[in-house]
Amino acid sequence: MLRFDHVTKQFGAHKAIDDVSFTVEPGLITAVIGPNGAGKSTLVNMAAGSYSVTSGRILVNEVELQTLPKHRIAHAGLSRTYQNIRLFDGMSVLQNLEVVLVPPRIGTLVASTFGLTGRRAEGERRERCMAVLERLGLAPFADRLAGSLAYGQQKLVELARAIVNEPRVLLLDEPAAGLNHGETERLKHYILDVRTPDMAMVLIEHDMKLIMSISDRIIVMNRGTVLAQGTGAEIRANTAVQEAYLGQPGAIRDIEAAARGRRNRVRIRESESLTWHQP
């Protein structure tokens, strides 16, 4: 499991995360949502070692991540994707996955950790990566340069690279950002497909339709603190969450009524609901 234990992060005088504690259980998809600037991505960046922790602890099982460099955090079982794609554009899709695994020429001592040596190690690594690409529908693009793929396909390559090492914790930072409806539906299918009973998954996302359709638990952040936790139904009914998103309880109803009254000017369909759509 992944545990945030009284975690605080300050950037100078600004406290981006203020004494946050919660646990992400294995086998579940836990979404972390909140208005822009709530501290969602800061949590991910601290867990992954991109930001230091001002105080508190972040643990995968009993391993404290906040004291470790990035490569040891990865060895502890944490993997992530990025809000802005970070692939090796000049390498093939297959190579983008292979680079995560132990290279065959690094020496027999390291290769022996996987019980492999020489060409056998190279073949096993390729088979492992191809199996993940096949699972995500990317096998036909294995030898294509990652930078030549469409944006939605690149998002899937990032997901493939994040799971090829079979992590204990998977952090997905806005995986649906920039995707159209069809691509988001395919992403939803693949996220559900890669979940395992022993992997904790954290989903940072603004697409509330996606969040509500796949999340087992939702944590709402606001101004660096945890505002609410619960199921989708519990979060949807929480007036404090409505206030954080739209200004005050009942604002959703008022905005929809105002929109219907001005439909000729704003061209909004009366059947549309503004619930859970970020501005």
Annotate the secondary structure layout:
Layout: E1 2-11, E2 14-24, E3 29-33, H1 40-47, E4 55-60, E5 63-64, H2 70-75, E6 78-80, H3 93-98, H4 108-112, H5 118-135, H6 151-163, E7 169-173, H7 181-194, E8 200-204, H8 208-214, E9 217-222, E10 225-230, H9 232-236, H10 239-246, H11 251-261, H12 263-266
Parallel strand pairs: 3-8, 3-9, 6-7, 7-8
Antiparallel strand pairs: 1-2, 1-4, 4-5, 9-10
- Computed Rg: 21 Å
Distance between the termini: 33 Å
Structural class: alpha/beta
CATH class of the largest domain: Alpha Beta
User: How is the CATH topology of the largest domain named?
Assistant: Rossmann fold
SSE topology string? EEEHEEHEHHHHEHEHEEHHHH
Strand order of the largest sheet: 6-7-8-3-9-10
Task: Please summarize the sheet with the most strands.
Answer: 6 strands, mixed
Number of strands: 10
Helical fraction:
25-40%
Oligomer: single chain
Poorly predicted runs: 104-109, 262-279
State which percent range the strand residues make up: 15-25%
Identify the overall geometry. globular
CATH architecture of the largest domain: 3-Layer(aba) Sandwich
- How many domains in all? 3
How many H/I helical runs?
12
The CATH superfamily of the largest domain appears as: P-loop containing nucleotide triphosphate hydrolases
Mean pLDDT: 84
